[in-house]
Design a protein that fits this description.
This protein has 385 residues and is an alpha/beta fold. Helices cover 46% and strands 12% of the residues. The chain starts with 10 loop residues before the first strand and ends with a helix.
């Protein structure tokens, strides 16, 4: 197991009715900016519960954070936070709103061009506004980590950043807020955490048995719960388990002391930036192809994955590896996520454009061994056709 330092300061307030606890965790004298997306929180009762919990605090609102949060939108929010002397941010929505709020928290305190935050991956963040979140769309795990991804459409860029200063101070996870989610968002909420786990698990062995088994537990729970959450829309137990899986998939715990990949994500980001696919849709397309192209380097963990997660114990090693990858594809398809570029009317003509974007963003040495070059990425994309 590799050396690691683990600290996660985010307080989780889990369960029905926990939005009311905001009253006790945001300072009474805070000047709050409530940040949300398209306004669905006003239709599902979340907005009203938040307003009640905030009570007499001075509240400014910023609406309109996109599904892939836009740099220019977030800069406007940061400007508004400064203009109104905001001292505390509150994100209400899914991972995109929370990701956006992390950028706003940093940009509102940043001297100079805020795009430098993205170009430096957050390493130049010296201070950030405190913030909390009310999660309404479980998928990204952003509610309990310090990472974020921001889109800048005018230059076709979607880049990640992170900072220890960008952890939410608290996050409210009320499964009942997810009952009204559209099917597409529930599908994304199954696929996204599944691939988050795989990026930290399907690399190479380092003797981290507990992390492996925790990762396998999250994957197994998603496999069991995901289809049920889609079928039974207002079942509290299924939604609660799906919500907690998404959080546990990327709160740092299963990634302690183990190598991590993330090449599927980096390639997927370019698909979103260029062609508008949902983040989770790109992951369902890229992951199986990635595993096939790089199965030699991932051989031991792929065999473990096939046996422990899918119960595959018969056949040659190569056959078991392929069966595990096929089972992954079939699971994505079962929950409604296509696994080929052609399913989105994208053919081999897009590969060169994607590779150029990866190169322009310095994504040329990806993966757990930093050996996913543009040539390897090209092979992955061809396998995903």
């Amino acid at each position: 197991m590799k050396n690691f330092s683990f600290k996660n300061p985010t307080q989780i307030l889990f369960g029905e009715g926990q939005i009311a606890e905001i009253a006790n965790v945001i300072p009474a004298d805070a000047r709050v900016m409530l940040i949300y997306g398209g306004g669905s929180i006003k239709g599902n009762g979340v907005y009203g519960q938040i307003q009640t919990a905030l009570g007499d605090r001075i509240v400014t609102e910023f609406a309109g954070v996109e599904a892939n949060p836009e740099f220019t939108t977030l800069c406007r929010a940061a400007d508004k936070a400064r203009e109104h002397n905001v001292t505390y941010l509150l994100a209400a929505g899914g991972g995109s709103v929370i990701d956006g709020t992390k950028f706003i928290a940093a940009a509102a305190c940043f001297e100079g061009d805020p795009w430098e935050i993205m170009l430096k991956g957050g390493r130049n963040i010296e201070q950030a506004l405190p913030f909390g979140s009310v999660l309404t769309l479980p998928a990204t795990g952003s509610e309990m980590n310090s990472g974020s991804v921001v889109n800048r459409s005018e230059i076709k860029a979607k880049l990640p950043f992170g900072s220890p200063l960008c952890y939410p101070q608290f996050s409210v996870l009320d499964p009942t807020t997810t009952y009204t989610l559209p099917t597409r968002q529930i599908i994304n909420g199954v696929v996204d955490p599944f691939v988050h786990v795989v990026e930290q698990y399907l690399t190479y062995p380092v003797g981290a048995d507990l992390q492996d088994r925790m990762a396998e537990a999250v994957l197994s729970s998603l496999i069991a719960t995901g289809p049920k959450a889609l079928e039974f829309r207002d079942n509290y137990e299924y939604r609660a388990n799906l919500m907690w899986c998404a959080t546990m998939a990327l709160n740092g715990l299963i990634g302690c002391g183990v190598p991590q990949d993330w090449s599927t994500h980096m390639i997927g980001h370019e698909l979103t930036a260029l062609y508008g696919l949902d983040h989770a849709q790109t992951l369902a397309v890229v992951l199986p192809a990635n595993l096939r192209i790089r199965k030699a380097d991932k051989r031991e963990k792929l065999l473990q994955y096939a046996e422990r997660v899918w119960g595959i114990t018969t056949g040659t090693e190569d056959e078991r590896i392929e069966q595990g990858i096929v089972a992954t594809e079939q699971f994505f398809q079962k929950v409604g996520a296509p696994t080929r570029l052609r399913d989105y009317q994208l053919g081999d003509e897009v590969i060169g454009t994607i590779i150029k974007q990866l190169e322009s963003h310095q994504m040329v040495k990806l993966g757990e061994k930093r050996d996913v070059t543009p040539e390897v990425s090209t092979a992955i994309l061809r396998a995903a056709l």
